[in-house]
Each structure stands twice: as structure tokens, then as C-alpha cells.
Amino acid sequence: MAVIVPAVLATDISQYRRYIEVYNNFAKRIQVDITDGEFAQNQTIDESNIWWNKDQTTCDVHMMVTNPSKHLQTIIKVNPSLCIFHCEVSEDLIPIFDKLKEAGIKTGVAFLKQTYPGSEKFKKYIEAADHALIFSGKLGLQGGEADLLQTEKVEIIRSIKSNIEIGWDGGANLSNVRALAHSGIDVINVGSAISHAQNAPEAFKQLTEELDKNGVVL
């Protein structure tokens, strides 16, 4: 059963606080997007500023950064449930994954639109990771359109590691979350469809209820 996870992308600490204070009221799991101004042109808050209500919410961190090793110690200190790095970086992610696992943090690997997850170069990341993120959006931005052809990657990823959790990031909204869930996506990260809604809790509720509907997905 797929779950809806609000995604937080904040350019300053006050904006981040506003999102978290709202999402802590209804979300059991959130994803915080972090960019370094290099891997993605836009820059968010630093990962050292991440906080959440640990009593009732788990936090995933999606690191859109060029050099994962430079962020590793801070991530370990912040201690999210899951940390996702992009396979397209030049660093080998396996040593990064090993250190995260030693700290009790689950590991994730993200794939941009143009990246084929079945290549020999990336299979080892899928095999080592707990989570694979299919990224269909624009780096460092919210409000894009979902490219549903990217769901073809689900089968490829599952053929490498059948029990891996698969996430989606980019353009998820009320018109497509059911199709995403039916494609085999486990975690649907939702940005602007919640963050730009007049009533964020109601938007989250509607998205969650949409996943429970049966019938033909158009």
C-alpha cells in the first residue's frame, strides 16, 4: 500500500519552520529536500538545520548534493530515518551507505529522468540500498509535471532487488497519485500539491483517500 509523504523544500529557516509546524499536525512521515547550489542550481537550508517532531513523525532526507561525503557527518548527527543520495554523483556511494548503516540510518539511491537504473554501474547501489527514488521533477524546485513514463523504472529496480522500497518525487498530485500507486510505487513524495494548498491537512487527506479508490486508472 502506497503512502503519501509531504516533501519540504525551504530556502530559509523561517520557511522551513512554517512547513514543519503545519506538517507535524498530520504527517507521520516527511521528506526534507536539501540542495547545495551545485548539483541543483537552487540552494535550500543546510542539513544541519533539519528538525522535526521525533515523537510522532519520521524524516527522510533527499540530498541533492555533488559531494555526499562532505555532508555525511552532519547527516549522521541529524539522524533521519532515511538518507537518499543521487547515483549521478562522482563519488562511490557504497562507503557512504556503509557509514549510514553503521549509524542506524537507512540508505536510498535516487535516479534522475535520464538515468537508467539497470546499468551495471548502478545495480550495486540498488542492491545495497533500502530505498530507490525515481526522480521525475526539476532539481531544487516544486510544482513540476509528473512524467509517468518514468514508472517503467519500477520493474527494472524490482528485478534487481525485489523487496526494496520505491519512492517517487516530482509532480505528484490528486490527478496522478492513484496511477503512481498502481504502478508499484511505495512512497509518493508530494510537494506543491500540499505546500501550495490553501488547506494542507485537507489536501493530504484527499491525496491519501485517492490511493484507496478502486477502478480504472486513466
CATH homology-level superfamily: Aldolase class I
Classify the secondary structure makeup into a structural class: alpha/beta
Helix content: 25-40%
Q: Spatial order of the strands in the main sheet?
A: 1-2-3-4-5-6-7-8
What best-fitting shape do the alpha-carbon axes yield? Answer: globular
Largest sheet: 8 strands, parallel, barrel
What name does the CATH topology carry?
TIM Barrel
Task: Kindly estimate the percentage of residues that lie in beta strands according to DSSP.
Answer: 15-25%
Assembly type: single chain
Total domain modules: 1
Task: Write down the overall mean pLDDT.
Answer: 94
CATH class: Alpha Beta
Radius of gyration: 16 Å
CATH architecture group name:
Alpha-Beta Barrel
Number of helices: 8
| Gap between N and C termini | 19 Å
Order of helices and strands: EHEEHEHEHEHEHEHH
Number of strands: 8
Taking pLDDT < 50 over at least 5 consecutive residues as the criterion, the unreliable ranges are none
